[in-house]
Amino acid sequence: MVAAAAVAVVAILVMGKLGGGGGDVRWQIDLAPAGEVRSVEVTITGGDQVLAVHQQVGGRAVRLTTPAPKGRAKVTIDLILPDGPHRVVREADAPAGATVAITVGE
């Protein structure tokens, strides 16, 4: 029973290290062109897997690191601006080791 538990822990650690595609992806989201951002929520998914959810009040940029997704990644950016809520959705190829830059508001 102890051996089975140890194997399960190792499997979880290996899956956590490998993620979707075997490495990390850096995401840089530039909010500056959108003007005054009161709050932002960024959700990054790859296939049916949620890779990251990030919320912050204000700011000019969001920087995240996630495991590489399986296939194309979908980035959903929900902004609260002075004139109300806005949603921006982008898709990107994001292989392991890549840096993906997204500019909002252009």
Average pLDDT works out at 83
Question: Number of helical runs?
Answer: 1
Could you list the spans in which at least 5 consecutive residues all have pLDDT below 50? Answer: 1-21
Radius of gyration of CA atoms, rounded to a whole number: 17 Å
Order of H and E elements: HEEEEEEE
Q: Which percent range fits the helix content? A: 10-25%
Task: Return the structural class.
Answer: alpha+beta
Number of DSSP strands? Answer: 7
Which term fits the overall shape? Answer: elongated
The oligomeric state is single chain
Largest sheet: 4 strands, antiparallel
Terminal Cα span: 57 Å
- Adjacency order of strands in the biggest sheet: 3-2-5-6
Descriptors for this entry?
106 residues, alpha+beta, three-stranded mixed β-sheet, 1 helix, disordered N terminus
Describe this structure in words.
This protein has 106 residues and is an alpha+beta fold. The protein contains one helix and seven strands. The strands form two sheets. The chain has a four-stranded antiparallel β-sheet with strand order 3-2-5-6, with no helix packed on it. A three-stranded mixed β-sheet has the order 4-1-7, with no helix packed on it. Strand 2 (39-46) and strand 3 (49-57) form a beta hairpin. The longest helix has 17 residues, at 2-18. The radius of gyration is 17 Å and the shape is elongated. Residues 1-21 have low confidence and may be disordered.
